[in-house]
Structure formats: C-alpha cells, structure tokens
Amino acid sequence: MKERTLTILKPDCVKDNLIGKVIDLLLAEGFKVCAMKMIKLTPETAGGFYEVHKGKPFYDSLVEFMTENRVVPMVLEKENAVAELRRVIGATDPAEAEEGTVRKLYAESKGRNIIHASDSPENASIEISYFFSQAELISNY
Ligand code: CMP
C-alpha cells in the first residue's frame, strides 16, 4: 500500500545548492512529491518539531542549525515510504551511512546531515501535519 512520509531538506542542503540533486535522487528512487515548500524555521518552530529531543546534549545546536537558513519540507509517497526513505538517506552519521545514500554523498557530520526523514508511520503523520494543512495535501496520485 502507498504510504506517505515527511522529509526536510535541511539548511546545509539549501545553502550548498544541493536541493536539486537530492530531489532528483529521491525521484529516481520512485518517490512522488505530494507537497513541498521552502520556509525559514524560527527557534520556536524548529524546537517544537524536535521536542522529542529536548534535554539531549545536541538539542540546542540542532535548533540553531535548523534555523540558520531556509529548509524544504516535503511530503513523499511510495510503497513502504517511511522505511524506504530511511534506507535511501542512510545513517544519521554520514561516516556510518551506506555508499550511494544521500548522507554518504553529501552530509558533513551527524549534526549537519542534509536531510530529515520520519522514523515511523505514526510520526510521519504527526510531522506531515506540523508543516502542511489538509488543503495542501490533496491526493494527486
Ligand atoms: P534527524 O533525522 O533530523 O533527527 C534528529 C536529528 O538530531 C538528527 O537528524 C541529527 O541531525 C541530530 N542528531 C542526532 N544525534 C546527534 C548527535 N549525537 N549529535 C548531533 N546531532 C545529532
């Protein structure tokens, strides 16, 4: 069954002009783009999105990083999209990511790692609603 997941092309991806290359790779892997926007997160919106990591040692630097440039949240659709996207982007730490994955190709470190992907179908649904209204999520495919 087709599933939806949320990805965010992070500030390093935008700053280094990599959004086209990363989107191309996602399309080549069979994902359909259902919704997409370019926005600048505030400390409040970035902090709210990563609320689950609040209190962790990397939380403040994560929020700071996510607000340093614009980001591109996207809703992607594919069979088994949540697991598939996590496979395609690779491990959080690019040093541990498989060859050919987005993070292996383009990420600099665990903190500056180019792309976010939802970690479960339940969180995908919560994260999609964080960035997109129902009107922006009309089914195209
Ligand atoms: P992301 O998939 O967006 O979800 C949470 C983010 O926290 C993760 O990518 C990393 O960018 C960041 N993160 C997780 N662990 C660490 C860490 N140990 N040091 C710095 N950043 C981290």
Provide a descriptive summary of the structure in words.
This protein is an alpha+beta fold and 141 residues long. It has a single domain (2-136), classed as 2-Layer Sandwich (Alpha-Beta Plaits). 39% of the residues lie in helices and 17% in strands. It has seven helices and four strands. It has helices spanning 11-15, 19-28, 43-49, 59-66, 81-89, 102-106, 121-131, and strands spanning 2-9, 32-36, 72-79, 115-117. The chain has a four-stranded antiparallel sheet with strand order 2-3-1-4, sandwiched between helices. The longest helix has 11 residues, at 121-131. It is globular. The two termini are 13 Å apart. The model has no long low-confidence stretch (mean pLDDT 97).
Summarize the structure.
The mean pLDDT is 97.
- Report low-confidence residues grouped into runs of 5 or more: none
Number of helices: 7
Instruction: Name the beta content range.
Output: 15-25%
Shape: globular
Q: Oligomeric status of the shown chains?
A: single chain
- Number of domain units: 1
User: Architecture, according to CATH?
Assistant: 2-Layer Sandwich
Q: Which structural class best describes the helix and strand composition? A: alpha+beta
Helicity, in percent?
25-40%
Classified in CATH, the superfamily is: Nucleoside diphosphate kinase-like domain
Classified by CATH, the class is Alpha Beta
What sequence of helices (H) and strands (E) makes up the elements? EHHEHHEHHEH
